[in-house]
Amino acid sequence: MQTHIETIQKEFEEDFKNCFSSATLESLKIKYLGKKGPIQDLMKGLKEASGEDRPKLGKSINDLKVSIEAKLTELGRSLIAREEQQKLLAEKIDETLPGKKRFQGRKHPVNGTLDEIINILIAMGFTVEQGPDIDTDYYNFEVLNFPPEHPARDMQDTFYINKEVLLRTHTSNIQARVMESQKPPIRIIAPGKCFRNEAVTSRSHVFFHQVEAVYIDKNVSFSDLMGTLTDFMQKLFYKDIKVRFWPNYFPFVEPGLQVDIHCLNCKGSGCTLCKHTGWLEVAGAGMIHPEVLKNGGIDPEEYSGFAWGLGIERLVMLKNGIKDIRLFTENDIRFLNQFSAI
Ligand code: FA5
Predict the structure, then answer these.
(1) Tag placement on the chain: N or C end, fewer CB within 10 Å?
(2) What is the distance between the alpha carbons of residues 335 and 304, in angstroms, rounded to a whole number?
């Protein structure tokens, strides 16, 4: 048995010399110290040794086991340290390399100006309401005095989903809704997306934004409308901005107005943005038609009101000297990066 112990020792020494990784070390542990390993076999065989030899042999087997365990533990420690060192070397950070640039997101220019407009109007006493982008023909047209087949419907080419449901063509679809749910005095704005099935040009798109304003109370007058709009434009642009009001027809207001502002791009001398007129149409407005007030359950004998629908993209274009509305939806990072970060 003693010879067998020595043979196992030699075999282990040989294996140990060739152990260079923790994976091999693990297999050596199993091979020599595992339940089916030679040390266990020697232990079992001890029973057969004579009573006289047993203590000596037992000690030899135990010494071999302890020495194998000690050698493997020691080697394990140095292998782990070496492997960790190698890993660290492979992962070494070169502090002289340039850092990774993080790109900061920013607001879309339309959203930036939209927020500015909303803040100005809140400070002027309006509260914010929301209307649906997908709406019925009733709220987008009929309740606003556009009867079916009325030629005025051609003013706003419409994306119909079916006979009754459409993508709203203007934020005026909020008007009857607020009249149905609130009692005068009503002073609300409603920002949102609008859709029109029309040719895309540098000034017009199938998709754009408006901010509707509705003010209904006793004795609201036409001069309130013009004064509020002019005050708003001066706050958004600058004190002396020139605002021009023209008569215009919308079935839901009487009288109706088109609102132009002086083209800031060419300072009035004429450019493609203002179609060489020096002015840009930015809103439709007017005194709410008595029929529309009635449709909303408000007595036109007692109350009057004004409404407007501001086109946001055109205001952003004027503010920033942007000559083509299509830039807002092209997602060209070179364009978007020119606007200040949030
Ligand atoms: C309207 O949409 C009316 N609802 C406005 C209104 C509200 C009138 C309340 C009276 C009372 P109009 O179609 O003119 O009106 O559009 C208003 C503004 O939206 C325009 O002056 C323009 O700035 C913008 N706009 C209209 N169509 C487009 C388009 N296709 N692309 C970009 N902006 C547009």
Answers:
(1) C
(2) 44
Q: Is the pLDDT of residue 152 over 80?
A: no
- Determine the 3-state secondary structure of 243 from DSSP: strand
CB 210 near ligand 1, within 6 Å: yes
Residue 158 beta carbon below 6 angstroms from any ligand 1 atom: no
- Please indicate whether residue 295, judged by its CB atom, sits closer than 6 Å to ligand 1: no
The reply to whether the predicted model has a pTM over 0.85 is no
Q: What's the average model confidence in pLDDT over 31-39?
A: 91
Cis bond leading into 151, ω under 30°?
no
β pairing state of 127-128 and 186-195: parallel
Feature table: binding site for Mg(2+): 254
Q: Is the pLDDT of residue 163 over 60?
A: yes
Contact, 307 vs 283, CB < 8 A? no
Contact criterion met (CB below 8 Å) for 143 and 295: yes
pLDDT computed for residue 342 by the predictor: 57
Cβ(288) to ligand 1 under 6 A? no
Q: Whose CA is nearest to atom 27 of ligand 1?
A: 204
* pLDDT tens digits along 173-191: 999 999 999 999 999 999 9
